[in-house]
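Posting for a labmate who doesn't have an account.
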Amino acid sequence: MSVLSSGSSRRPSADDLLVLLAVGRSGRFVTAADELGLNHTTISRRITALEQTLGGRVLTRVAGGWELTDLGREALVAAEAVESAVQSLAADASGNRVLEGVVRISATDGFSAYLAAPAAAEVRRQHPGITVEIVATTRRASTQRSGLDLEVVVGEPQVHRAKAIRLADYCLGLYGSRDYLREHGTPATIDDLADYPLVYFIDSMLQVDDLDLASSFAPAMRESVTSTNVFVHVEATRAAAGIGLLPCFMADRHPDLVRVLADAVSVELTYWLVARPETLRRPEVSAFVDALRAKVHHERNALLGK
């Protein structure tokens, strides 16, 4: 059913469509209200008015928020056209389109710090009106992406009504501090690893299958310091807590860390970007994704430990 050929003879209000756009992107009435400077009641009233005009539901309740219905996704295309028309009126002194808005991304700790943050800074240099919010977390892709525009996860995700984009491969390797290896010796074979403690994730709290399997090459290694945060892994390894299984692009930044058994232990994993198709069409999100891809491409050798 077309949004302009529904059972009602009235055309949908542009304001109501923009409200739907805000709710559809965030999945929450409260977030949309804050973004638009309205209250929750007004958001609810405008959505109800839009549904009455279109003759059907545009949103459906899900755990943690709201998702677009088929009619809602069709209406969202019209809402994006309204937004684009409004934004096209805003230009800088050179006549270039001014981009603004908030881009919310969740990613692993290391990716957030060394890839997402520099990409955000580059976007800000080009488009000062864009704000980037980075949530550092290591988890599977969400089944409901309420409140998030983009997610970066480890391992190919199984997603519903979202697009998964392969961003980059990266490598985990074994590292020890120079002081630790001087005192305890350097393992020469994988069998030798049984005599060394491992610094890695807390096994019982790890939600990502690919990371869970990464340490299976040395099941005999006993745990030393474990954490949900990869920066803790790096610093514990630097402090001589044991042998760390670390992302090469993080460990190689520290001259006091030495990679061991590089030929025998090289665990290759993949970062994936997950987002709704309608989110990727937003100009500010597209600008950030472009900057993120450029940063990942620039760091490809470091990501692979080369």
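Reply:
Got it, the structure tokens are right above this. Residues 4-8 have pLDDT under 50 and may be disordered.
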